[in-house]
Amino acid sequence: MENSTDRQLAEDWWRTEIIRMQPGEIRIRGYAIEDLTGRIGFAQMVWLMTRGELPTEAQARLLEAAMVAGVDHGPQAPSIAISRMAMSCGAGINGAMASAVNVLDDVHGGAGEQSVDLYHQIAAEGGTPEEAAAAVLERRAEAGQKYVPGFGHRFHPVDPRAPRLLALVDQAVRDGTVDGRFARIGRAVDAHLRATKSRPVPMNIDGATAVVYAELGFAPPLCRGIFILSRSVGILAHAYEQSLRPDRNKGPIPRQWLWRYDGAGDRELG
């Protein structure tokens, strides 16, 4: 005989505001899944799942633009390289994608979240964006935090993705979709770095998507997750491509090359 108290405890333990499901019925945030299917896009679904309400079409377009911009950055990117090596080692698509996603952490994949955090710190500082950015960045430098998340790139003198995203944000400001506060802050950081650094440290994809996410009101931890959703598309494409190739990619350098050894010289035991 079922114990109603135990059942209530179990139901309370797994409580959620996201989905209701029972035989013949699935509702996401109150909407029937069959009503959503074919009527909203994936970016709208991401917003609904994470924020609880549907975005406007303009908000969804801006979010989708940020997600499109971050899908891939070449096979040398750690997550992409890992997905290709995992496929060569016999993993399936799921294993390759999981292995790749697991390295999207603070150093590779976390800069967007960190950049949103930085923008919020500057917003809380008070004063003009330029004054606030200078104050926060100077404190970071004094504390030994030389790296500014969302700025600088080892390949691109100008990251081609950033100006395009900022232009879309500017259009969204003109349309009344966002207010532009974080775009001003991002540009203030960029200007401060240009004025104080010996070499250019321009805004990169992480700094630009952070502007989009902050303008749209996403909490910083969600921003890393959204980037992972975006980059997972590139991970999937590279893993599948590798699975179709006759050669195997089982290491970070071509097999005819060897790594440099700089340990102890040759020696004899005993």
UniProtKB/TrEMBL annotation:
Keywords: Lyase, Transferase. One of its GO terms (biological process) is carbohydrate metabolic process. CDD domains: CCL_ACL-C. Its EC number is 2.3.3.16. GO terms for cellular component: cytosol. The keyword Chloroplast does not apply. InterPro entries: Citrate_synth-like_lrg_a-sub (IPR016142), Citrate_synth-like_sm_a-sub (IPR016143), Citrate_synthase (IPR002020), Citrate_synthase_sf (IPR036969). Pathway: Carbohydrate metabolism; tricarboxylic acid cycle; isocitrate from oxaloacetate: step 1/2. Pfam families: Citrate_synt. It comes from the Bacteria. NCBIfam families: PRK06224.1-1 (NF004864). Belongs to the citrate synthase family. This is citrate synthase (unknown stereospecificity). It comes from Paracoccus zhejiangensis.
